Amino acid sequence: MECTVIIPSRDRPESIRQSVASALAALAMAERSGTVLVVDDGDEFPVWQALAGCSFSALRVEINPGPKGPSAARNYGAAQAQSELLFFLDDDDLMEPDYIQRILAQLQSGACKTVWGFSRARDSRAYHGLPEHPSRLGPDVPLRQRLAGLGTGFWIERGVFRRLGGLDEELRINEDTDFCLTLAGADLMPWYEPQSGVKLEAARSAQGATDRPSTTTSTRAAERAAAWQSILEKHAILLANHPVECGIFSARVAKYRARAGDVKGALAIAVRQSGAARWRALAQVVAGAATRKR
Fold first, then answer.
1. Is 90 exceeded by the pLDDT of residue 263?
2. CATH number of the domain bearing residue 175
3. Which of 44, 158, 178, 224 is an S-S bond match for 256, by CB 3.0 to 4.6 Å?
4. Would you say 168 and 101 are in contact if contact means Cβ atoms under 8 Å apart?
5. What residues does 120 pair with on adjacent strands?
């Protein structure tokens, strides 16, 4: 089974070299034909310059010709890919050397019967409580634990990704949560790999002054609030059956609205919640107001 590792990159000339090297090593260990496809979404530092000297037949660099942003860059990469399977990797993360090999082995043995999946990330606590062995996460697993970041070893069949329309290009952050909710709405359950598939932000040890900071942390609070509100509205029917997750997302809207200076609007969101969700949202309003930066 051939696969493509898609790495969108914008203005990270230092860390992209390590990310690409890790993906090439993972492909080599899997002993399968495949491609590491880097989509240059940058403004200042061309990827081809950063990767000068990396002459590997499995490496391909494409310049994103359309709308900018991580979602659009990933969608463009997926459109260019010819393989059955897509893996996504961020340009400041490192792929574990045996990760692709592990996933392909599970697919080919028939143990994995899903069309997408993700892994635990090294040093991440995000998936505590999930099985300690490779497993399909069914409807009995809380929805919030089936929401994966695109940086957590996320893989998917190319045909499924395209059929579902890819990532929402209007979202510059939280596009991974949005897409996982789309997958959940289509009743497509993920495969979970409890061993680390990636090392989050591990390539940042190589970062110099020219490397762009994290997209999430550098995004304005008002835009972060708008992204969560968009997700709530877009997936309202699905989230109506998942009140805990709906409350969590509403609390995030409240937090970022408070951080952006709209404390009145944030409180209005909080008081509309009930029970534990209200207290969670109120706590987030306090936290957002206390950390107001913009």
1. yes
2. 3.90.550.10
3. 224
4. no
5. 196
Name residue, tokens 């409240």.
254
80-85-89 Cα angle (round to 5): 75
Residue 84, domain extent: 3-206
In a domain, 253, yes or no: yes
Model pTM? 0.92
More confident residue, 205 or 278: 278
What type of residue is 40?
D
Q: Assess whether 38 and 164 both reside in one domain.
A: yes
Tell me how many domains the chain contains: 2
**247 and 154 inside one domain:** no
In percent, how much of the chain has pLDDT > 90?
78
Between 240 and 211, name the one with better pLDDT: 240
- Phi first, then psi: what are they for 209, rounded to 5°? -65, -20
Q: Is pLDDT at 242 greater than 90 in this prediction?
A: yes
Distance, in Å, from the CA atom of 161 to the CA atom of 174, rounded to the nearest integer, reads 17
Residue listed under structure tokens 């993360």: 93
Q: Out of 206, 232, 267, pick the residue that ends a domain.
A: 206
Residue-level pLDDT at 129: 72
Spatial separation of the C-alpha atoms in residues 186 and 238, rounded to whole Å: 10
